[in-house]
Design a protein that fits this description.
This protein has about 80 residues and is an alpha+beta fold. Helix content is about 25%, strand content about 35%. Strands 2-3-1-4 form a 4-stranded antiparallel sheet, with helices on one face. Strand 2 and strand 3 form a beta hairpin. The protein is globular and about 35 Å long.
Length: about 80
C-alpha cells in the first residue's frame, strides 16, 4: 500500500475537504482519502502509487492550488502504535 500526501492551498472549510476528496474518489480506486483545510494537506491511501500528473489532473477543476505531492509506503498505525 502507498500513502500519498498532497499539499493543497485554498481550502477553507469541511465542504472544501469533501470537494477535493470526492474528486480523488471519482478519479481513482483508493482505499482511503482524507483532507485537512487547517493543515492544507490531503492524504491518499491506495494499492498502487498514483502519478503526480494524474492527481493534478483530477484536482485541476476544483479551483485549489496544488503544491507538493509525495508518496511513500503506507504504515498502518495500530491501536497502541
Amino acid at each position: 500500500m502507498i500513502e500519498t500526501e498532497v499539499s493543497i492551498n485554498g481550502m477553507m472549510c469541511g465542504m472544501c475537504e469533501a470537494h477535493v476528496n470526492d474528486a480523488i474518489r471519482k478519479a481513482f480506486d483508493v482505499k482511503k482519502v482524507s483532507s485537512s483545510h487547517k493543515k492544507g494537506l490531503m492524504k491518499i491511501v491506495s494499492e498502487h502509487e498514483l502519478s503526480p500528473e494524474a492527481i493534478k489532473e483530477a484536482l485541476k477543476d476544483t479551483g485549489y492550488e496544488i503544491g507538493s505531492i509525495e508518496s511513500h509506503p503506507y504504515v498502518k498505525k495500530g491501536l497502541f502504535g
